[in-house]
Structure formats: C-alpha cells, structure tokens
Amino acid sequence: MRRRLVAGNWKMHKTPSEARAWFQNLLERLPQTEAEAALLLPFTHLPYAAQVLGDRVAYGAQDVSAHREGAYTGEVSARMLADLGCLYTIVGHSERRSYHGETDALVAQKAQRLLEQAIVPILCVGEPLEVREAGEHVAYTLRQLEGSLNGVNPPAASSLVIAYEPVWAIGTGKTATPEDAEAMHKAIRSWLEGRYGRGFAEGVRILYGGSVRPDNASALFAQPNVDGGLVGGASLKLEDYLQLLTA
Ligand code: 13P
Known about the structure:
Elements: E1 5-9, H1 16-29, E2 36-41, H2 46-53, E3 58-61, H3 78-83, E4 88-91, H4 94-99, H5 104-116, E5 120-125, H6 129-133, H7 137-148, E6 161-164, H8 178-196, H9 198-203, E7 205-209, H10 214-221, E8 228-231, H11 238-246
Residues 9, 93, 165, 170-171, 209-212, 230-234 line the site of 1,3-dihydroxyacetonephosphate.
C-alpha cells in the first residue's frame, strides 16, 4: 500500500516571515487524513519550517548541489538540508532543466547526494508540448528517467519519489486527463520494475504535477498508479492546499 503524498512546490514565492505565519495556520487547520503532506520550499524558508512544522508536516528544498562540500559559491549541500530536517527535496524540475540547463547526468548526481544524506529525492520528468503532439511522450519521459537515475541506487522504494510533470501542463491551467496521467505513470512503474525489480517498483510513489487544483485532484488521485501530486500554484493558498490533502 503506497501512502498518498501531496507535495506543494512553492517555487520562488512568499518571504520567510510570510511562510512562518502560513505554517502556523496550516498546523491549526491540518485535517485528519491518510495522505502525507509535504512542502518544498525556498532555502531561506527552511529554518522556519524546522521550527514551526517540526515533524508534523514534512518539508524540504527545491534543488540541491551536485557537490558534497567546497568552494561552490551560492550552492547548498545535501548535508545542510539534512541538518535542517529536510525529508524530501526536488531534483530535475523542468524549470531547472530549461532555465538552468540541468542535464539528466547532473540530476542523477544531485539525487545521489540526497540519498547519501537519507533525503528522498522527488525526481521530476515530463515531456514538452511538441513531444506530446508528436506522440513521443512515453519514450521521451522514460529516456529522461533512465538518464536521471543513472548510477542512482535508492536503498528502498520509500527512498525515491517520481513526479511526472508534463511541461505543457505546468502553470498553464491545462491538466493531463486522468487517463493520460495513468498511462504514463503505468509506463514509469513498469520501467522501474525492469531497473529495480517488482517489489521496489510497486512501492515507489509516482506523483502527477501540472495544474493540479481542488476541482481536478480527486479524479487524478483516484487513478491506480497516481500516488498523489506535486502542486505549484494551488499549494500557495491554504484553503486550496487543505482541500488537496483530503482529495
Ligand atoms: P502548477 O501546479 O502551478 O502547474 O505547477 C506544477 C509544478 O511545477 C509543481 O512542481
């Protein structure tokens, strides 16, 4: 049984002080639900997450350095994130792949750095619009997955989360249909089986991301291979995020 995960990716939104107040409101209103809540935050917000959320709501970063330590100005290491209690961290988000030129090989190194610190990578993959229109989306996404997991050996199924985020659905209001999401998630799980074995593949959570909102979440999360969501815009509004947790 895979526990549903509703992970909010705040991207570059809110100040640390605004975040602290939001965390307090969240804890006051946290619903009784079987789903796990997690927030992926800008680095600056993490000390407040540690203080306020503690171990009641999981949190983590949106990126990490591929290096362990050293003269890398502006970078943040996995060890620093672990010290602040991060349980999850995103790697390979399409915004980093396209605006910062991150390659599959770099994403794989980042995932490995996280695993060394027992932080669960939320590894993002997904195709752009022209690839979907050409009907090449499954091959494209699985190739990205293979490259981004090259040399990456998670110790258990619970040590890895995959997020399928079709680029054309991110921040656009266009969502994959539940059937399209399910078809891709199934293909990803079957690829994972070939790479890591059946038991492992059955335990890995595969999230859908791309314009998930309270009005479309239930249909997406009801698919057998959709184990929750990686949510951008709707995770910034407390009311919406609370509704997603019970969807
Ligand atoms: P939106 O939910 O705003 O489309 O963002 C999705 C996303 O990129 C989450 O990582």
